[in-house]
Amino acid sequence: MSEEEYRTVLATLKEEAIYPYTEDEMQVVKSVESCINCGLCIQHCPVVAAVGLDSFSGPRSIAVELSRSPPEYWTTADVVYLCTGCGTCREVCPKDVDIPEIVNLIRARIFKHRPDLVPKQLHAADAIIVEHGLAFVPWEDPEEKVESRNMRLERLGLRYVPDQVVKGADVLFYPGCQAEERAQEVKESAKIILDHFKAKFTLLEEMNCCGLPATLLGDDKTALELALRLKKKVKDLGVKMLVTTCAGCTSNLARIAERDAWGIPVYHMLEFLVEEIGIAKLSSAFKQSTEEEPLRVTLHDPCHLIKHTSRITMDYAGQILSLIPDVEVTHSFAHDSCCGGGGLVSYHAGDVARAVMKENLAAIEETGASRVVTPCPLCTAQLEDSLFRQGSSVEVDDMTVFIAQRLPQKG
Amino acid sequence: MAKYDVVVIGGGSTGTAVARDCAMRGLKILLLERDDIASATTGACAGMISSGLKYMDEPNIVDMCSDEVVNFKRIARHVMEKNPIITPLLEMSDISSGGNFAEEYSKRAETRDVPPVLFLTPEDSLKIEPTLNPDLIASIYFEEYFISPFALCMLQALDAKQHGADIKTYCEVTDILTKKGSITGVQYFNRITDKMESAKTRAIVNAAGPWAHKIAALAGAKLELRLNKGAHVILDRRVVNVGVIAKAIEGRMIYLFPHENTVLLGTTALDTWEDPDTLVASQDEIEYLLKSMEWVVPSIRDARIIRTMEGVRPLIPTWKIPEGDVTRGYEVIDHEPEGVSGLISFAGGKLVMCRHMAEAATDLVCKNFGIEAECRTHIEPLPGNSDDVDILALAKEYGVSQHTVERMRARRGTEIVMILELTRDHPEWKTTICTCEPVIEAELRYAIRATFPQTLNDLRRRIRLGTGPCQGTFCTFKAATILAEELELSGADFQLEIVDFLAERWKGKRQSIRGEQIAQEELAQGIYACVGNLDQALERLDYDLKPWEEVL
What we know:
The complex is a heterodimer.
Chain A: H1 3-15, H2 23-32, H3 40-44, H4 46-51, H5 58-68, H6 77-80, H7 88-92, H8 99-113, H9 120-132, H10 142-156, E1 171-174, H11 176-182, H12 184-196, E2 201-202, H13 212-217, H14 220-237, E3 241-244, H15 247-259, E4 266-268, H16 269-277, H17 279-283, E5 295-299, H18 303-306, H19 312-323, E6 327-329, H20 345-348, H21 350-367, E7 371-374, H22 377-389, E8 395-398, H23 399-405
Helix pairs in contact in A: 2-8, 5-8, 11-12, 12-23, 21-22
Chain B: E1 3-9, H1 13-24, E2 29-32, E3 48-49, H2 59-76, E4 80-89, H3 92-96, H4 101-109, E5 118-120, H5 122-128, E6 138-147, H6 149-162, E7 166-168, E8 171-179, E9 182-190, E10 195-206, H7 212-218, E11 226-235, E12 243-247, E13 253-259, E14 262-266, E15 270-271, H8 283-294, E16 305-315, E17 330-334, E18 343-348, H9 354-369, H10 391-398, H11 402-412, H12 416-425, E19 432-434, E20 439-440, H13 441-450, H14 456-463, H15 476-487, H16 491-509, H17 516-531, H18 534-537
Parallel strand pairs in B: 1-2, 1-10, 2-7, 4-12, 10-18
Antiparallel strand pairs in B: 3-6, 4-6, 5-6, 8-9, 9-10, 11-14, 11-15, 11-16, 12-13, 13-14, 17-18, 19-20
Helix pairs in contact in B: 1-6, 1-9, 2-4, 10-11, 12-13, 13-15, 15-16
């Protein structure tokens, strides 16, 4: 029983493209055993609806065809990267088949064993994550980052709450890569909110990605490495809870915090506000409106909250909006439809991502709202871009920013 | 009346191999099959091109098996796969019972391009196959080749056809004509035309498997067989990474083998006198297999069983010994000494030997005819094995998903280009018909036009239609529509086709139905009875319940 013998076995397995499922993976694949082929998931899949079954064979095919014969995993590369990972299929499945996890699992296999079949844009994205520990290339000049932040604060009429790193704080605010590097107003707004409600908060000394993009593109190794790096930082700070403003981070941090036994809860800002601050405090917090007309707003539900975490977060969103004077919410019929921004699809198949968005745009226009509010900086960016391309006058606000703007200014 | 040199009776692995060999050697051949190609014994086997692992006490047979594996790799690599196999040892006594297996296997391993038998630590074993019982003390590792038995038979039949043979399915031999003790012809009932037909021939090769004794009797010849039935339980997907071999409750060897997109759990071996046509797996057989496998793969009972299948082995008639001790060699019997000249029958044999058996029988036919012709069946590739197939390029060129193209390739090799070409004029034929496997409409149309199926069940053998977890729930009505259009079936025949196929699926489902498969069955019944109203149509269709459909 030598190592050499085992290597011989591995050589055959490689030759036959058999990469044994681990026990964890087996559990995911096992959920597919319940599939009765009913096709409900196909009827509800936003990508199928947008591009048709000929271009994207849909969740059922991923569950049934693509997961049955592991050695053929590599043939699925033309399908699995088009999944936006919204999780609708899992939600509507009468048998609880975990299709989004199967997509991740197959992508991980392809990334590891057939990297030539991974879209090259995803390799580029991975290189950035590996090099910087962030989903985006960080600002080269820190001064410019500050300038950009100040411009955003000024444009939105927000005050500046200084960054702080405090050991033993109650709350770790984790902005996520998008709010850290790009949508800085979201990070600033979160600090304003925390400061307003006198939460003892801290930031990370050095921000690093939660690992979700790495997971989605199949780089499990990097994802795990980032998760462990983050855990160490969290432990060193000794906080009682983590609050984030990004939907993707919320679902992923909740998952890894449980998996890696962080021992603290993970909240989206909305959950934090309702569950930790409380509706009573919130209801008296908002300043009176100076507008003559009420602002007509519609909500967009981020998949990573409603389908990957909990639907209750968006109930909270509605409750919070109802507390803000002179805001009128009109529901869009597509409020819980994927924005197309998930699953890293927009990185390499922008046309597919935009096609998925299309239904949302029509629904948003139909509400007659002048503003879309959504508690996720990634959805915000995706919606903003699409509405702009369409020449729409509807504006988009990240909900954290929307809330911060409506709190009274103080010194 | 048509005149042939040889009439081959039986369209299983041996019959199609004989037709191919004879045709390649220039003989005029008619193959008669009472049902469809590979519809009985061959269709119920595990597809293992066995190196002879169960027969290490018969070294000459092991040599033959090993050589045949090499031959198949040459002629049919495109429809084959290699499975690593683990035999976990749970107690010390399991080690000693291996006998001379490791030595005999390893001796011939190199020629088959596989490593010798290896012994793996429990840790390594579990890394390869985490479903194994963690209490194992070691495992034996070796590798075997597998082939799709349906594809093999179909390709042999098609190749025979290309060499001039006539292949007739649904033609049941009703009489063998002799004159002064010599074969002169056959009479058969053509179930497609509903007519009696006949053909003249100088010789008959009887490859009728478990019916071979009945065929011999038609010529007044005597043939004894020891019929032995075996059941397989079919699981919905690859629940194991590699093949697993275990000892059954009474010490026989049983296995879990990955096969296409499924896993086969088999097999039983029971002497039988039942009718092979209506035989189904029994509860005892299913439980025997589950109970036995559970010791080494504890989670096996939780796996989803989609169906069972039962086949009958036509063993060489050695009596008063256990089935496992009966030789797995074969016999070619020339009935001349008993006064029937021109009739040659087979007894025994294994899938891996089918080409070898055909060569032996054809040699004998040629010798009897006084012809000198070399066998080339082990050299010339079967259709579709002429070259590698670039899946990624073809998928891109024709706009068909890579997975669909790869599944197609596993059935037809290079010939898939002919299927894909159909989509140039008919882009709508890229539609997926069977969503489990998957199968697109173009492949269905091509199979109907090029491989002479008569029923949906025949299509199932050719393209794996309806063999996935949903067992025809979603493909049956779609495929029936296409078949009806291609074969110009009447409305009633179209409906009968659906009912027949569902009945055939039910044959394998009924015995093992449990767990998720019950939910699946509810959906199937909902579609065909509640929505399709086919249960109401049965009377009008003049449909007789199949024996396995009778309500107790």
